[in-house]
């Protein structure tokens, strides 16, 4: 069963007012403003023309119709109505044509900015944010913002203006009836205000729950093999249904809140008009109001009532857009703590034997899940003062018990995380003083769990190689990297190195994926190669062959390798023991074996694990 998705952490204090939040969309929407404003003007023009119609009616009724019965006047009036109607239709079409394209442009721009920012944010951010929450921000939240921008915003402005102008016209046409309408508007304004407060929170809750649901789908699909293998499909379904029910409840809550206000905004104007009708007819009967004015008042009220009834729906769209914008800005406002220095330092020219790697008093603790800020280090120190030097061209194996921090230490070198104290230096330069591009050209890492992309073997292996490397040089790098990583099997794939190896390389075996991932690190020809037990899925013979080739070919590379097996340790020049967050011993395998009790303990644990795997493979009972 997939773990419950974490609640997305809040990373910045968010502005409270809806106008302020939505106005920040201008950062991306600025190029679209002229067309949106023009579209809004045409929509407003159409709406004002609709309001003009009753005035034409009034003139017609009070003039040619009721007084002299002139046919010419009636025909003229009818022509005016026709022209006004046609112009109104043209204006509505213009609004749609003007606003459609810029809306999609803004959505695209915002989506690209979000993706760029996600790529820039440090691993610590991605540790704490679930994929579904980010996916729902990139897709449905941005869709909501686009719809609001091209329809909700424009129609809200147009409707509000129509209501104000229309009420003014009603007052001018028949002030007594206008006053009745104004009195009726007071509860409508109050209701709208109450609606705003209630709907805002529920709109945000629905979006967060939709993000959690997306996370559950993503995790379940990702872990489908585990769910099936352990027969936990029903549990996963139960979990999904529970979350889907929660979301449904929230959506119903939203719909109820909206329908209450929509009902009130639909019924109240009608009730007010009923009162106005009674008053109006009485006044007309007494001769205090002309029939033309009475008809014009009600025709205007009919035009105004449409926007009033729509106000609830438009307010709901606005509050949905606010919730979506809040969620979008929550990510965009997160400042990347791992960034390039203002004045970067260059690396000295590479030496013939690789770089000197130095860890000096390095401390680091993973920020706890749900921490308030990416840079927060409220977790305990995993590394509590690591001192280690790997000389140029040297291969050092890093050993320690499970969870001692070996992977964490490796990840500090290419700045996947930044140290909280101390420094990591490559050829004497603090990695934080280098641009990330320079650093990642100098340092390459191969992980134990190799992530391959849905692309050809060639693209996967050359991922870290400079894009402007010419074709032949890239082919050489590819061939050599595949050779060193003993990944010759790729030539037997249907299209050789051009075979697309499927989503995350799932069509390859674990050992094959590891070798392609290792080739990817080697192809960079880095000064420092970091291997996080990247050969764990290989048999001992292939591992020995790979390591021997590595040592022969990568003479200009300094290697730090996390070792989980005695066979990996044996291939290193020196071994460093990580214990309680510190390096407590560095030396050759035999030195440490003789003098370092913790090393002996770790090695014994490795051997037991190795035998257990071996026995398991050969069907022998494993003593515990
Ligand atoms: N992303 C993370 N967020 C929070 N804690 C983490 C994270 N990654 C690792 N840890 C914690 O840091 C500690 C060190 O983990 P690390 O993976 O570095 O150990 P390791 O020595 O490589 O373990 P192993 O030998 O099992 O691979 C562990 O207690 C682990 O739970």
From TrEMBL:
Record membrane topology: Multi-pass membrane protein
InterPro entries given in the database record: AAA+_ATPase (IPR003593), ABC1_TM_dom (IPR011527), ABC1_TM_sf (IPR036640), ABC_transporter-like_ATP-bd (IPR003439), ABC_transporter-like_CS (IPR017871), P-loop_NTPase (IPR027417), Type_1_exporter (IPR039421)
Keyword Nucleotide-binding: yes
Cellular localization per UniProt: Cell membrane
One annotated GO molecular function: ATP hydrolysis activity
ABC transmembrane type-1 domain span: 37-320
Cellular component GO terms, alphabetical: plasma membrane
Superkingdom of this protein's organism: Bacteria
ABC transporter domain location: 357-605
Membrane-crossing segments per the record: 32-53, 73-94, 148-172, 178-195, 263-283
Pfam families linked to this entry: ABC_membrane, ABC_tran
Keyword annotations of the record: ATP-binding, Cell membrane, Membrane, Nucleotide-binding, Transmembrane, Transmembrane helix, Transport
Keyword Transmembrane helix appears in the UniProt entry: yes
SUPFAM superfamilies the record matches: ABC transporter transmembrane region, P-loop containing nucleoside triphosphate hydrolases
Record-given protein name: ABC transporter
Organism of derivation: Cellulomonas biazotea
């Amino acid at each position: 069963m997939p773990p419950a998705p974490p609640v997305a952490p809040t990373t910045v204090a968010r502005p409270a007012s809806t106008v302020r939040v939505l106005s920040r969309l201008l950062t991306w929407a600025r190029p679209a403003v002229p067309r949106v404003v023009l579209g809004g003007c045409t929509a407003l023009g159409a709406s004002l023309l609709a309001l003009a119609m009753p005035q034409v009616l009034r003139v017609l009724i009070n003039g040619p119709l009721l007084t002299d019965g002139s046919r010419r006047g009636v025909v003229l009036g009818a022509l005016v109505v026709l022209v006004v109607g046609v112009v109104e239709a043209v204006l509505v079409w213009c609004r749609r044509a003007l606003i459609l394209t810029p809306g999609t442009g803004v959505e695209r721009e915002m989506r690209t900015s979000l993706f760029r920012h996600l790529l820039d944010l440090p691993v610590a951010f991605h540790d704490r944010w679930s994929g579904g929450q980010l996916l729902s921000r990139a897709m449905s939240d941005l869709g909501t913002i686009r719809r609001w921008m091209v329809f909700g915003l424009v129609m809200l402005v147009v409707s509000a203006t129509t209501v104000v102008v229309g009420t003014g016209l009603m007052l001018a046409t028949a002030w007594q009836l206008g006053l009745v309408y104004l009195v009726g508007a007071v509860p409508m304004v109050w209701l709208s205000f109450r609606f705003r407060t209630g709907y805002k929170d529920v709109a945000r809750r629905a979006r967060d729950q939709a993000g959690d649901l997306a996370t559950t789908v993503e995790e379940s699909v990702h872990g489908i093999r585990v769910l099936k293998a352990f027969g936990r499909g029903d549990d996963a379904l139960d979990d999904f249904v529970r979350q889907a029910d929660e979301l449904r409840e929230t959506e119903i809550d939203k719909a109820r809140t909206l329908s209450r206000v929509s009902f009130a905004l639909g019924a109240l104007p009608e009730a007010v008009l009923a009162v106005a009708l009674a008053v109006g007819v009485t006044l007309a009967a007494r001769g205090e109001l002309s029939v033309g004015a009475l008809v014009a008042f009600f025709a205007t009220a009919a035009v105004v009532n449409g926007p009033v009834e729509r106000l609830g729906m438009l307010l709901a769209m606005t509050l949905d857009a606010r919730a979506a914008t809040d969620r979008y800005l929550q990510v965009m406002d997160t400042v990347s703590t791992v960034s390039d220095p203002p004045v970067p330092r260059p690396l000295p020219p590479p030496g013939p034997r690789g770089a000197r790697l130095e860890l000096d008093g390095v401390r680091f603790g993973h920020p706890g899940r749900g921490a308030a800020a990416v840079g927060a280090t409220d977790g305990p120190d995993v590394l509590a003062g690591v001192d280690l030097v790997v000389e140029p061209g040297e291969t050092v194996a890093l050993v320690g018990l499970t969870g001692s921090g070996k992977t964490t230490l490796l990840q500090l070198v290419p700045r996947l995380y930044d140290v909280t104290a101390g420094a990591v230096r490559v050829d004497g330069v603090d990695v934080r003083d280098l641009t990330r591009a320079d650093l990642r050209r100098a340092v390459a890492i191969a992980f134990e769990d190799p992530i391959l992309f849905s692309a050809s073997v060639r693209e996967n292996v050359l991922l870290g190689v400079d894009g402007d490397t010419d074709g032949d040089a890239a082919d050489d790098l590819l061939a050599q990297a595949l050779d060193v990583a003993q990944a010759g099997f790729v030539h037997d794939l249907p299209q050789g190195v051009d075979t697309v190896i499927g989503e995350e390389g799932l069509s390859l075996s674990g050992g094959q994926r590891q070798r392609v991932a290792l080739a990817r690190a080697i192809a960079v020809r880095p000064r420092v190669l970091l291997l996080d037990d990247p050969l764990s899925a290989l048999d001992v013979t292939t591992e020995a062959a790979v390591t021997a080739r590595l040592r022969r070919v990568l003479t200009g590379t300094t290697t730090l390798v996390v070792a989980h097996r005695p066979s990996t340790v044996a291939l290193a020049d020196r071994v460093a023991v990580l214990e309680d967050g510190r390096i407590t011993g560095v030396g050759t395998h035999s030195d440490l074996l003789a003098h370092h009790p913790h090393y002996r303990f770790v090695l014994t644990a490795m051997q037991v694990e190795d035998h257990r795997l071996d026995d398991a493979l050969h069907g022998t009972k494993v003593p515990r």
